[in-house]
Amino acid sequence: MNPITIALASFGMSGRVFHGPLISANENFRLVKILERSRNESAEKYPDAEVVRHFHELCEDDRIELIVINTPDNTHYDLTREALASGKHVVVEKPFALKYRQAAELVETAGKKGLMLSVFHNRRWDGDFLTIRKIISERLLGRLVEYESHFDRYRNYIQEGTWKENPESGTGTLYNLGSHMIDQALVLFGKPESVYADIRYFRTGTRVDDSFEVWLRYPDIKVSVCGGYMVREQGPRYTLHGTEGSFLKWGIDPQEEALKQGKIPVGQNWGKEDEKNWGLLHTDIDGKIFRGKYRTLAGNYTAYYNNIFDVLRNGAKPAVSGEEAALVIKVIEAAYKSCRTARAIKI
Protein backbone atom coordinates (compact mmCIF):
# COMPACT_ATOMS: atom_id res chain seq x y z
CA MET A 1 0.00 0.00 0.00
CA ASN A 2 1.18 3.50 -0.82
CA PRO A 3 -0.76 5.91 1.44
CA ILE A 4 -1.23 9.52 0.44
CA THR A 5 0.60 11.97 2.68
CA ILE A 6 -1.69 14.78 3.70
CA ALA A 7 -1.71 18.00 5.72
CA LEU A 8 -4.50 20.00 7.35
CA ALA A 9 -4.32 23.78 7.00
CA SER A 10 -6.42 24.31 10.13
CA PHE A 11 -7.66 22.49 13.21
CA GLY A 12 -10.92 24.34 13.74
CA MET A 13 -14.36 22.76 13.69
CA SER A 14 -14.03 21.17 10.25
CA GLY A 15 -10.58 19.80 11.04
CA ARG A 16 -11.62 18.33 14.38
CA VAL A 17 -15.04 17.00 13.36
CA PHE A 18 -14.73 16.09 9.69
CA HIS A 19 -11.32 15.97 8.02
CA GLY A 20 -9.21 14.70 10.93
CA PRO A 21 -11.44 11.68 11.72
CA LEU A 22 -12.20 10.83 8.09
CA ILE A 23 -8.51 10.93 7.14
CA SER A 24 -7.13 9.16 10.22
CA ALA A 25 -9.67 6.33 9.95
CA ASN A 26 -8.66 5.68 6.34
CA GLU A 27 -5.59 3.49 5.88
CA ASN A 28 -5.01 5.04 2.46
CA PHE A 29 -3.88 8.32 4.05
CA ARG A 30 -1.16 9.43 6.44
CA LEU A 31 -1.66 12.71 8.27
CA VAL A 32 1.77 14.35 8.31
CA LYS A 33 1.28 17.95 9.43
CA ILE A 34 -1.44 20.10 10.99
CA LEU A 35 -1.35 23.87 11.00
CA GLU A 36 -2.33 25.55 14.28
CA ARG A 37 -1.45 29.22 14.61
CA SER A 38 -0.92 29.27 18.40
CA ARG A 39 -2.28 26.08 19.99
CA ASN A 40 -1.41 22.39 20.04
CA GLU A 41 -4.91 20.92 20.32
CA SER A 42 -4.33 18.33 17.61
CA ALA A 43 -1.26 16.80 19.25
CA GLU A 44 -3.19 14.64 21.70
CA LYS A 45 -5.44 13.09 19.08
CA TYR A 46 -2.89 12.90 16.26
CA PRO A 47 0.51 12.52 17.96
CA ASP A 48 2.20 11.33 14.75
CA ALA A 49 1.36 14.56 12.93
CA GLU A 50 3.69 17.52 13.36
CA VAL A 51 2.08 20.78 14.50
CA VAL A 52 3.34 23.78 12.51
CA ARG A 53 2.61 27.53 12.69
CA HIS A 54 2.84 28.76 9.10
CA PHE A 55 1.17 27.67 5.88
CA HIS A 56 4.41 27.75 3.91
CA GLU A 57 5.64 24.88 6.11
CA LEU A 58 3.00 22.70 4.45
CA CYS A 59 3.82 23.87 0.95
CA GLU A 60 7.59 23.44 1.34
CA ASP A 61 7.43 19.89 2.72
CA ASP A 62 8.28 17.53 -0.14
CA ARG A 63 6.65 14.62 1.69
CA ILE A 64 3.19 16.17 1.50
CA GLU A 65 1.13 15.32 -1.59
CA LEU A 66 -2.24 16.76 -0.60
CA ILE A 67 -3.22 19.83 1.43
CA VAL A 68 -6.71 20.30 2.86
CA ILE A 69 -7.63 24.00 2.83
CA ASN A 70 -10.16 24.10 5.70
CA THR A 71 -9.48 27.68 6.79
CA PRO A 72 -11.90 30.68 6.95
CA ASP A 73 -13.81 31.23 3.71
CA ASN A 74 -12.01 34.42 2.65
CA THR A 75 -8.63 32.63 2.70
CA HIS A 76 -9.58 29.75 0.38
CA TYR A 77 -8.51 31.45 -2.83
CA ASP A 78 -5.09 32.69 -1.68
CA LEU A 79 -4.11 29.50 0.14
CA THR A 80 -5.32 27.20 -2.64
CA ARG A 81 -3.38 29.24 -5.18
CA GLU A 82 -0.25 28.99 -3.01
CA ALA A 83 -0.68 25.25 -2.53
CA LEU A 84 -1.14 24.65 -6.26
CA ALA A 85 1.90 26.81 -7.03
CA SER A 86 3.96 24.54 -4.78
CA GLY A 87 2.79 21.45 -6.69
CA LYS A 88 0.35 20.09 -4.12
CA HIS A 89 -3.00 18.46 -4.80
CA VAL A 90 -5.77 20.29 -2.94
CA VAL A 91 -9.06 19.62 -1.20
CA VAL A 92 -10.90 22.85 -0.34
CA GLU A 93 -13.66 23.23 2.23
CA LYS A 94 -16.89 24.67 0.92
CA PRO A 95 -17.49 27.32 -0.22
CA PHE A 96 -14.81 26.88 -2.87
CA ALA A 97 -14.16 30.63 -3.15
CA LEU A 98 -16.03 33.90 -2.66
CA LYS A 99 -15.99 34.87 -6.35
CA TYR A 100 -16.60 32.79 -9.44
CA ARG A 101 -13.62 34.31 -11.25
CA GLN A 102 -11.37 33.14 -8.40
CA ALA A 103 -12.79 29.61 -8.53
CA ALA A 104 -12.41 29.49 -12.33
CA GLU A 105 -8.82 30.68 -12.08
CA LEU A 106 -7.97 27.96 -9.55
CA VAL A 107 -9.55 25.28 -11.75
CA GLU A 108 -7.51 26.51 -14.72
CA THR A 109 -4.29 26.56 -12.67
CA ALA A 110 -4.82 23.03 -11.40
CA GLY A 111 -5.50 21.81 -14.92
CA LYS A 112 -2.37 23.38 -16.34
CA LYS A 113 -0.26 21.86 -13.57
CA GLY A 114 -1.88 18.44 -13.76
CA LEU A 115 -2.99 18.63 -10.12
CA MET A 116 -6.18 17.42 -8.50
CA LEU A 117 -8.48 20.11 -7.12
CA SER A 118 -11.66 19.05 -5.33
CA VAL A 119 -14.11 20.68 -2.92
CA PHE A 120 -15.48 18.98 0.21
CA HIS A 121 -19.17 18.87 -0.67
CA ASN A 122 -19.65 16.02 1.78
CA ARG A 123 -23.43 16.36 1.91
CA ARG A 124 -23.68 14.57 -1.40
CA TRP A 125 -23.18 11.55 0.89
CA ASP A 126 -25.90 12.39 3.41
CA GLY A 127 -28.22 9.43 3.72
CA ASP A 128 -31.32 11.47 2.93
CA PHE A 129 -29.78 12.88 -0.25
CA LEU A 130 -28.62 9.43 -1.38
CA THR A 131 -32.20 8.25 -0.78
CA ILE A 132 -33.66 11.11 -2.81
CA ARG A 133 -31.34 10.32 -5.71
CA LYS A 134 -32.59 6.73 -5.61
CA ILE A 135 -36.25 7.79 -5.51
CA ILE A 136 -35.76 10.11 -8.48
CA SER A 137 -33.71 7.63 -10.53
CA GLU A 138 -36.30 4.88 -9.98
CA ARG A 139 -39.13 7.32 -10.80
CA LEU A 140 -41.04 6.34 -7.67
CA LEU A 141 -42.89 9.67 -7.85
CA GLY A 142 -43.46 9.49 -11.58
CA ARG A 143 -42.16 12.58 -13.36
CA LEU A 144 -40.73 14.94 -10.74
CA VAL A 145 -42.33 18.39 -10.86
CA GLU A 146 -41.28 20.09 -7.60
CA TYR A 147 -38.19 19.89 -5.37
CA GLU A 148 -37.68 21.96 -2.22
CA SER A 149 -34.84 21.57 0.24
CA HIS A 150 -34.22 23.26 3.60
CA PHE A 151 -31.21 23.64 5.87
CA ASP A 152 -32.58 25.47 8.90
CA ARG A 153 -31.29 26.18 12.38
CA TYR A 154 -32.45 28.08 15.44
CA ARG A 155 -29.76 30.56 16.40
CA ASN A 156 -31.46 33.85 17.25
CA TYR A 157 -28.29 35.45 18.63
CA ILE A 158 -25.00 36.75 17.32
CA GLN A 159 -22.24 34.23 17.98
CA GLU A 160 -19.31 36.10 19.45
CA GLY A 161 -15.68 35.56 18.51
CA THR A 162 -16.21 33.86 15.17
CA TRP A 163 -15.22 35.01 11.69
CA LYS A 164 -18.55 33.67 10.45
CA GLU A 165 -20.30 36.75 11.87
CA ASN A 166 -17.88 39.14 10.17
CA PRO A 167 -18.97 40.44 6.75
CA GLU A 168 -15.34 41.22 5.90
CA SER A 169 -14.82 37.43 5.85
CA GLY A 170 -17.30 37.25 2.98
CA THR A 171 -19.54 34.79 4.73
CA GLY A 172 -23.27 34.35 5.41
CA THR A 173 -25.81 31.53 5.45
CA LEU A 174 -26.02 31.38 1.67
CA TYR A 175 -22.31 30.65 1.36
CA ASN A 176 -22.21 28.56 4.54
CA LEU A 177 -25.33 26.41 4.26
CA GLY A 178 -26.61 27.27 0.82
CA SER A 179 -23.50 26.03 -0.95
CA HIS A 180 -24.34 22.46 0.14
CA MET A 181 -27.93 22.70 -1.04
CA ILE A 182 -27.14 24.36 -4.33
CA ASP A 183 -24.51 21.70 -5.00
CA GLN A 184 -27.09 18.99 -4.36
CA ALA A 185 -29.58 20.63 -6.73
CA LEU A 186 -26.93 20.91 -9.45
CA VAL A 187 -26.06 17.23 -9.01
CA LEU A 188 -29.72 16.31 -9.51
CA PHE A 189 -30.76 18.73 -12.23
CA GLY A 190 -27.67 20.31 -13.79
CA LYS A 191 -27.11 23.98 -14.58
CA PRO A 192 -30.26 26.10 -14.21
CA GLU A 193 -31.45 28.59 -16.80
CA SER A 194 -31.66 31.40 -14.26
CA VAL A 195 -31.65 32.21 -10.55
CA TYR A 196 -34.02 34.32 -8.44
CA ALA A 197 -33.41 34.92 -4.73
CA ASP A 198 -34.64 36.57 -1.55
CA ILE A 199 -31.82 36.97 1.01
CA ARG A 200 -32.49 38.52 4.44
CA TYR A 201 -30.84 39.74 7.67
CA PHE A 202 -33.28 38.72 10.43
CA ARG A 203 -31.30 38.46 13.69
CA THR A 204 -31.13 41.65 15.70
CA GLY A 205 -27.75 43.26 15.04
CA THR A 206 -26.58 40.74 12.46
CA ARG A 207 -24.02 41.88 9.90
CA VAL A 208 -24.26 38.79 7.69
CA ASP A 209 -27.24 37.29 5.90
CA ASP A 210 -29.03 34.66 7.96
CA SER A 211 -31.99 33.69 5.78
CA PHE A 212 -32.34 32.87 2.09
CA GLU A 213 -34.66 31.39 -0.46
CA VAL A 214 -33.23 30.69 -3.90
CA TRP A 215 -35.24 29.52 -6.90
CA LEU A 216 -33.38 27.68 -9.65
CA ARG A 217 -35.29 27.76 -12.91
CA TYR A 218 -35.48 24.61 -15.04
CA PRO A 219 -37.88 23.96 -17.93
CA ASP A 220 -39.92 21.15 -16.38
CA ILE A 221 -39.36 21.27 -12.61
CA LYS A 222 -39.75 23.85 -9.86
CA VAL A 223 -36.62 23.90 -7.65
CA SER A 224 -36.01 25.94 -4.51
CA VAL A 225 -33.41 25.82 -1.72
CA CYS A 226 -34.04 27.59 1.58
CA GLY A 227 -32.23 28.15 4.85
CA GLY A 228 -32.29 30.32 7.94
CA TYR A 229 -31.29 30.81 11.54
CA MET A 230 -34.75 31.72 12.87
CA VAL A 231 -36.49 28.37 12.54
CA ARG A 232 -37.30 26.93 15.96
CA GLU A 233 -39.84 24.41 14.71
CA GLN A 234 -38.51 22.85 11.53
CA GLY A 235 -40.55 21.50 8.69
CA PRO A 236 -39.43 18.90 6.16
CA ARG A 237 -35.81 19.02 5.09
CA TYR A 238 -36.83 17.78 1.65
CA THR A 239 -40.18 17.97 -0.11
CA LEU A 240 -40.57 16.26 -3.48
CA HIS A 241 -43.73 16.09 -5.60
CA GLY A 242 -44.24 14.18 -8.82
CA THR A 243 -47.01 13.15 -11.16
CA GLU A 244 -47.58 9.95 -9.15
CA GLY A 245 -46.77 10.91 -5.58
CA SER A 246 -44.81 12.78 -2.92
CA PHE A 247 -41.86 12.24 -0.60
CA LEU A 248 -41.23 14.23 2.59
CA LYS A 249 -38.15 13.87 4.76
CA TRP A 250 -37.54 15.47 8.16
CA GLY A 251 -34.38 15.55 10.26
CA ILE A 252 -30.69 15.62 9.40
CA ASP A 253 -28.12 12.97 8.55
CA PRO A 254 -26.62 11.49 11.77
CA GLN A 255 -22.98 11.45 10.65
CA GLU A 256 -22.00 14.94 11.79
CA GLU A 257 -23.38 14.39 15.29
CA ALA A 258 -21.62 11.01 15.50
CA LEU A 259 -18.32 12.63 14.50
CA LYS A 260 -18.82 15.37 17.09
CA GLN A 261 -19.23 12.64 19.68
CA GLY A 262 -15.87 11.18 18.68
CA LYS A 263 -17.20 8.08 16.97
CA ILE A 264 -14.96 6.49 14.34
CA PRO A 265 -16.45 6.53 10.80
CA VAL A 266 -16.14 2.79 10.13
CA GLY A 267 -18.29 -0.32 10.36
CA GLN A 268 -21.54 -1.60 8.87
CA ASN A 269 -23.71 0.64 11.05
CA TRP A 270 -21.94 3.89 10.20
CA GLY A 271 -24.32 6.47 8.77
CA LYS A 272 -27.47 4.44 9.38
CA GLU A 273 -30.54 6.39 10.41
CA ASP A 274 -33.06 5.29 13.03
CA GLU A 275 -36.25 3.98 11.46
CA LYS A 276 -38.34 6.60 13.29
CA ASN A 277 -36.66 9.27 11.13
CA TRP A 278 -37.29 7.63 7.76
CA GLY A 279 -39.15 9.77 5.25
CA LEU A 280 -42.79 9.51 4.20
CA LEU A 281 -43.49 8.15 0.71
CA HIS A 282 -47.01 8.43 -0.71
CA THR A 283 -47.23 7.24 -4.29
CA ASP A 284 -48.71 4.86 -6.84
CA ILE A 285 -46.52 1.79 -7.45
CA ASP A 286 -47.67 -0.68 -10.11
CA GLY A 287 -51.25 0.50 -9.76
CA LYS A 288 -51.31 0.22 -5.98
CA ILE A 289 -51.24 3.13 -3.53
CA PHE A 290 -48.39 3.05 -1.02
CA ARG A 291 -48.24 5.44 1.91
CA GLY A 292 -45.66 4.77 4.59
CA LYS A 293 -42.07 4.99 5.78
CA TYR A 294 -39.34 4.67 3.19
CA ARG A 295 -35.97 3.40 4.36
CA THR A 296 -33.15 5.97 4.40
CA LEU A 297 -29.94 4.74 2.81
CA ALA A 298 -26.88 4.86 5.06
CA GLY A 299 -24.85 8.04 4.74
CA ASN A 300 -21.20 7.67 3.85
CA TYR A 301 -18.81 10.62 4.15
CA THR A 302 -15.90 8.20 3.89
CA ALA A 303 -16.77 7.79 0.20
CA TYR A 304 -15.42 11.29 -0.47
CA TYR A 305 -11.87 10.47 0.67
CA ASN A 306 -12.03 6.99 -0.85
CA ASN A 307 -12.59 8.75 -4.17
CA ILE A 308 -9.67 11.13 -3.54
CA PHE A 309 -7.40 8.11 -3.12
CA ASP A 310 -8.72 6.58 -6.36
CA VAL A 311 -8.09 9.85 -8.18
CA LEU A 312 -4.49 10.17 -7.04
CA ARG A 313 -3.50 6.50 -7.18
CA ASN A 314 -5.75 4.98 -9.82
CA GLY A 315 -6.54 7.86 -12.19
CA ALA A 316 -10.25 8.03 -11.36
CA LYS A 317 -12.32 11.17 -11.89
CA PRO A 318 -13.00 13.38 -8.84
CA ALA A 319 -16.45 12.79 -7.41
CA VAL A 320 -16.57 16.55 -6.78
CA SER A 321 -14.67 18.39 -9.49
CA GLY A 322 -13.41 21.94 -9.34
CA GLU A 323 -15.64 22.83 -12.28
CA GLU A 324 -18.75 21.61 -10.45
CA ALA A 325 -17.82 23.52 -7.31
CA ALA A 326 -17.12 26.68 -9.32
CA LEU A 327 -20.64 26.52 -10.77
CA VAL A 328 -21.99 26.57 -7.21
CA ILE A 329 -20.19 29.88 -6.63
CA LYS A 330 -21.54 31.24 -9.91
CA VAL A 331 -25.08 30.45 -8.77
CA ILE A 332 -24.48 32.07 -5.36
CA GLU A 333 -23.18 35.23 -7.04
CA ALA A 334 -26.27 35.26 -9.24
CA ALA A 335 -28.48 34.86 -6.17
CA TYR A 336 -26.98 37.93 -4.47
CA LYS A 337 -27.33 39.92 -7.68
CA SER A 338 -30.93 38.79 -8.03
CA CYS A 339 -31.73 39.95 -4.50
CA ARG A 340 -30.13 43.35 -5.11
CA THR A 341 -31.93 43.93 -8.42
CA ALA A 342 -35.21 42.06 -7.75
CA ARG A 343 -34.95 40.15 -11.02
CA ALA A 344 -33.98 36.73 -12.29
CA ILE A 345 -30.33 36.36 -13.34
CA LYS A 346 -29.47 34.15 -16.30
CA ILE A 347 -26.74 31.55 -15.84
Chart the SSEs and their pairings:
Elements: E1 4-8, H1 13-24, E2 29-35, H2 42-45, E3 50-52, H3 56-59, E4 66-69, H4 76-85, E5 89-93, H5 100-113, E6 117-120, H6 127-137, E7 144-152, H7 173-189, E8 194-200, E9 211-217, E10 222-228, E11 238-242, E12 245-249, H8 255-260, E13 279-285, E14 288-294, H9 302-314, H10 322-341, E15 345-346
Parallel strand pairs: 1-2, 1-4, 2-3, 4-5, 5-6, 7-10
Antiparallel strand pairs: 7-11, 8-9, 8-15, 9-10, 11-12, 12-13, 13-14
Helix pairs in contact: 4-5, 5-10, 7-10
Can you tell me about this structure?
By secondary structure, the protein is α/β, with parallel strands linked by helices. The chain has two domains: 4-120, Rossmann fold (3-Layer(aba) Sandwich), CATH 3.40.50; 124-299 and 331-346, 2-Layer Sandwich (Dihydrodipicolinate Reductase, domain 2), CATH 3.30.360.10. The chain has helices spanning 13-24, 42-45, 56-59, 76-85, 100-113, 127-137, 173-189, 255-260, 302-314, 322-341; strands at 4-8, 29-35, 50-52, 66-69, 89-93, 117-120, 144-152, 194-200, 211-217, 222-228, 238-242, 245-249, 279-285, 288-294, 345-346. The protein has a nine-stranded mixed sheet. Strands 3-2-1-4-5-6 form a six-stranded parallel sheet, sandwiched between helices. Helix 4 packs parallel to helix 5 and helix 5 (100-113) packs antiparallel against helix 10 (322-341). It starts with a strand and ends with a strand. The relative contact order is 0.16. The mean pLDDT is 96.
